[in-house]
Amino acid sequence: MDYLPHILTAYGVFLLGVTSPGPNSLAIMGTSMTVSRRAGLISAVGIATGTLIWSSLSVTGLTLVLTTFAELALALKIAGGCYLIYVGVKSLRSAMKSQDLKVVESRGGKSGFHYYRRGFLVQMSNPKAALFWLSIMSLVLQPGAPHWVGASIIIGTTILSGSWYGLLALLFSTNVVLNFYRRARRSIDAVMGGLFMLIGGRILLSS
């Protein structure tokens, strides 16, 4: 139970990340709108698979580093906090811009595997994913943490990823939701940016 608050915090930060506009969400929106709801759902499964791999690599690698070099735990936490603040600043800057939402379009007539692979590659090819996962793992993984802590993060974030992007596929196959999102995008960016900066600042202060 001592690790439960840290795990829940990691889930919260991850949810902030996946719910803010980015390559993954735009790809799901575009596929759902321009192809079909089914294609969007399959792409969501591909993204969730990428989440499983990123989280597994992060847990395994960071656990090894902290076990071998325990003094790096503080440095990693500071780095994670700084990155979350950076993400928050970018979200706030995006909120001040008035450009319309640009989705990634995809043509129909492809197999289900095509859309699965597309979602997987979008997730795995994002260079910011490694830094984001570093910030999440630095919140909860401490030297000597039991293995179930890392496993709970891997399983939980994979489920959250598939659920969120699956929900996007369902919602953005309708024009009503898309139009509402376009109108509310700047407000969403502003709220997300403030929350990212708040969490990053708290991490730095606790460090």
What does this entry show, briefly?
It is built from 8 helices and no strands.
From the alpha-carbon coordinates, what is the Rg to the nearest angstrom?
A: 18 Å
Query: Approximately how much helix is present in the residues?
Result: over 70%
Gap from first CA to last CA: 22 Å
Mean pLDDT: 78
Assembly status: single chain
**SSE string, helix = H, strand = E?**
HHHHHHHH
Unreliable stretches (pLDDT < 50, length at least 5) are none
Report the biggest beta sheet as strand number plus sense, adding barrel if it closes. none
Count of DSSP H/I helices: 8
Sum up the overall morphology in one term.
globular
Strand content: under 5%
Class based on secondary structure composition and strand pairing: mainly alpha
> Number of DSSP strands?
0
Layout of SSEs?
Elements: H1 4-19, H2 23-34, H3 37-68, H4 72-95, H5 112-124, H6 128-140, H7 147-171, H8 175-206
Helix pairs in contact: 1-6, 1-7, 2-3, 2-5, 2-7, 3-5, 3-6, 3-7, 4-6, 4-8
Q: What can you see in these coordinates?
A:
It is a single chain. The relative contact order is 0.24. With 207 residues, the protein is an all-alpha fold. It is globular and about 50 Å long. The mean pLDDT is 78. It contains eight helices and no strands. It has helices at residues 4-19, 23-34, 37-68, 72-95, 112-124, 128-140, 147-171, 175-206. The two termini are 22 Å apart.
